Sequence to fold (171 residues):
Amino acid sequence: MTENNIISFNDPETRAILLSWWSRLDDDRKSRAMLRRWRNRHDVALVPAFHHLYWSLKKDHMVSIEKLASIAGVLSHVTSNDHHGTFAQQMAAPKDIDSKNERVSNQRFRRLLNVDNYDDLYITIIRMIRLLGGSVNIANLANGMYWWNEQTKENMAFSYYGNVIKKQNGE
Fold:
């Protein structure tokens, strides 16, 4: 294990492992389908593809199986990696060029911020991904889910509402 064994998907090496695992799901449709079928993190831990991710990251980091299983299950619903902006900024982005409405409404976003457990987070994030058309910032989403706490929620609120205000000001 490395000296700093706290996992962060902002770390380039850790992010590369995650993105490589996620991109291999395109070639392994059976695993992607198995991951998508499950409705909670406990079931995701029964899928061999999850274990590939877990053991790849476990080499250098202390990893929570429960948190990583939630991330793996959620990422099976992502169709493209959009590294422009944070996950919260992407939710606040307009639905289309002429729209004044966010892709994820303020009300739905507040519901996300009220989630306190990983089972509810799992289902809620999958719904958000669908509203975003499957295109999200994978590393930012994974990091936020892994470190889901009050600080993460506050950071997301600043990112989401900051993007809403910029849009309202025509920036």
Notes: The longest strand covers residues 80-81.
